[in-house]
Amino acid sequence: MLSSSTRSLTFAVAVLYAVLGALLFVAPHWAAPNFAWKVSPLVTMTIGGWCLGNAWAAYVVASRWRFSLVVSGLVYLALFALFQAGVVLAFWPVLRLGHWLAWLYLAALALNLLQAAVWIVEALRTRPAIETLGGRTSRRDIAVDVVFILLVAFLGLYGLLAPQGARGLHGGIFPDILTPFSLRAFGAFYLAVALGPLTLLVVRGVDTALTHMYLSWGLILFIALAALAFIGVFDLTGRPGQWIYLGIYVAVGAATAIYMLRGGTGARSAQASREVTDPRR
Question: Which residue spans traverse the membrane (predicted)?
Answer without folding.
Answer: 41-62, 74-94, 100-121, 142-161, 181-203, 215-237, 243-261
